[in-house]
Amino acid sequence: MPLPVVEYLKLPEDGDPYLEGHKCDDCDSIFLGEREVCSNCTARGKIKPVKLSNKGKLYSYSITFRSFPGIDVPYISAIVDLEGGGTVKGNLIDCEPDPDKIEFDMPVEVVFDDALGRKDAEGNSYISYFFKPIS
Fold first, then answer.
1. Would you say 41 and 28 are in contact if contact means Cβ atoms under 8 Å apart?
2. Euclidean distance between CA atoms 110 and 89, whole angstroms
3. CB-based contacts of 56: which residues, under 8 Å, 6+ apart?
4. Burial annotation 5-35 (CB, 10 A radius, 16+ → b, else e)
């Protein structure tokens, strides 16, 4: 079974992968990663796990042309506002790395796939998430 690349990517045995956020019961703010205190309203002990949407809109992006050896370039690093709350950073795929082809607020979906062939020391593969334009 593949391993998730980040702790907030959940791989249930009986369902599809999903991203998990943590939502404050007092102010409805959503964060990635577990926490006891809300960074928005400072409520304590009011944060519960929530399944994040697989649809959202592109908020911002950067096209990367230089990276570490072994990382294919260019690639598009994106920040996406998910429907229902939550903001996530990841790579935008199936889109030309050309500013004329990328639109702010364009609808995207979260897709889950192999993490570009990466493996751990024992040879286990990783699964990651990516953003893909919805046409």
1. no
2. 11
3. 80, 81, 82, 83, 88, 107, 108, 109, 110, 131
4. eeebbeeeeeeebbbbbbbbeeeebbbbeee
pLDDT digits (tens, 9 = 90+) for 23-42: 999 999 999 989 999 999 99
Q: What is the pTM of this model?
A: 0.90
Give the dihedral sign, CA 54/58/64/67: negative
- Amino acid (1-letter code) at residue 65: F
The stretches in the chain having pLDDT less than 50 are none
- At residue 14, the 3 state secondary structure works out as coil
Tokens coding 101? 């082809």
Those residues whose C-beta lies under 8 Å from the C-beta of residue 126, and which sit 6 or more positions away, are 2, 3, 4, 5, 114, 115, 118, 119, 120
What is the rounded distance in angstroms from the CA atom of residue 29 to the CA atom of residue 46? 11
